[in-house]
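Onboarding guide, step 5: your first structure request.
Type a short instruction followed by the sequence, for example:

Predict the 3D structure of this protein.
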Amino acid sequence: MEREEDIFRQFRDSFNNLEGHFHILEHPVPVNRQMEYFKHSAKLRKNSSVSIAEEEIDGIFRSLEMPEVSEEEKKYSLSMLAGSKSVKAHRMLEEYVKHPDERLADWANMALMESRISLESEFSNEKQIYISTGLGGKNEKLRFFTLFVSKDKLPFKDYQRRVIDREFPYLLSHENCEIERMTVKDYHVEMLFLVPVRSDIKKILDGVIGECNQYGGFLSEMFTITNVKELTESEVEEIMNRDGDY
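The system replies with structure tokens like these:
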């Protein structure tokens, strides 16, 4: 438990010590895909001769819709638009991510983020900070998947479900958190929610559990939380089957 406290504290402190404008990718993109994008982008930027003239932007953008253009060429085009520091290119990227080629959706969203950071760096003296997680976020909030388990692995009673449905949204909204999806199942609760980056996540969730447990102590004080990806059904089942104080 002490180790878990340290992890949450380090996570919170890492943001409290940062000054600048946070950029959080809204579209969930696997971390390895994000790293692939940044390596590709950095390689392009090393070549100082690589640049786009304003009159070339329309042609590059049109190439994204051409079936004869390869996926790799389109990735290159998206990265070039992202690094152009052009408002026109940025607007085109905003339009493209609304209806992208499914194979390029992650890449396009990364390109839009890079474009936004490049432009804000150009127009503002404020430091621009990119926060990378697999689940992304919204504005200055990070998205987390959280698993809560019933105490002693007993099925929830009807009144306990009602308590969860009432208390979770009420308490989290007071912490400026946003529930995007919450599912109460027989023995556990799955929740996808947004948390302000400087929040004390553990304190917030401990508080939610504590409030619910005033009505019969039916939730385990232990929970699983990740911002890497949503847990699959089999991963949830594996956690539920572990020995421990649930």
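Each response can be followed by summary notes, for example: Residues 26-131 form one domain.
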